[in-house]
Amino acid sequence: MKGNRTKLRLSFNSPAILVFTAICIGVQLLDLATGGRSNGILFSVYRSSLRDPLTYIRCITHVFGHSGWEHLVNNIMYILILGPMLEEKYGTQNIIFVMLATALVIGIINPILFPNVRLLGASGIVFAFIVLSSITVRENGQIPVTFILVVLLYLGQQIYEGLSAADNVSQIAHIIGGIVGAILGFVMNSLSMKNRRNY
Q1: 166: which DSSP letter?
Q2: How many helices (H) and strands (E) are present in the chain, helices listed first?
Q3: Residue 87: Cβ-neighbour burial (10 angstroms; 0-12, 13-18, 19+)
Q4: How far apart are the C-alpha atoms of 50 and 23, rounded to whole Å?
Q5: Distance between CA atoms of 154 and 171, rounded to whole angstroms?
Q6: Closest listed residue to residue 40, CA positions, set 18, 22, 59, 62
Q7: Residue partners of 121: CB distance under 8 A and separation at least 6
Q8: What burial letters (b/e) apply to 18-53, b meaning 16+ CB within 10 Å?
Q9: Which of 146, 109, 143, 144 lies closest to 130 in space, CA to CA?
Q10: How many C-beta neighbours within 10 Å does residue 193 have?
Q11: Which 8-state DSSP code applies to residue 158?
């Protein structure tokens, strides 16, 4: 009598997060192969001529570039932990929008505030995900206590470090990412609650 055998299969449960991770790894390998030139040309953001088409592309692509494997692994670990849960809750298209919006806002603000600094990395998306994961479905306009604690602990720390550290560029990116995550989280939760009431 043959026993029931369960076949183990790989599950691509979070396409947006898995594709983002694959792109970041590919960009890091490309940067190694080009001796750092690819990150400087395409995968970091800094003030440059508005006539250069790459100026606009870099406003998005800077989140794929990282200064090294340690920088990449630290960001990707958080994204792989938080991202699948968020993608399951909000949907793939919404999570892609959150990542694009975070990248774009940081990509625009950084050259304005820090014209002589080149910024790269997905830490802004990490902080958007951290704040977004703390926002649960709200009833009657209630604000989750977890959200308040995350804002006080994470963003408060970043604001303090940004004001006290000599190099506060990365802290600004973290703060912007957290703000984008908070705004979009409340908007998506409000829309989700409205759709449920309509049904």
Answers
A1: S
A2: 9, 0
A3: buried
A4: 26
A5: 10
A6: 62
A7: 62, 63, 65, 66, 67, 71, 75, 170, 173
A8: eebbeebbebbebbeeeeeebbbebbbbbeeeeeee
A9: 146
A10: 15
A11: H
Is the Cα torsion angle 192, 193, 195, 199 positive or negative in sign? Answer: positive
d(CA 45, CA 59): 6
Q: Which stretch of 27-31, 52-56, 176-180 has the lowest confidence by average pLDDT? A: 176-180
- pLDDT tens digits, one per residue of 34-46: 999 999 999 999 9
Complete domains list, the chain, with CATH: 15-198 (1.20.1540.10)
- Say which residue the tokens 């995968």 belong to: 43
pLDDT tens for 124-153 read 999 899 888 887 655 556 677 877 787 777
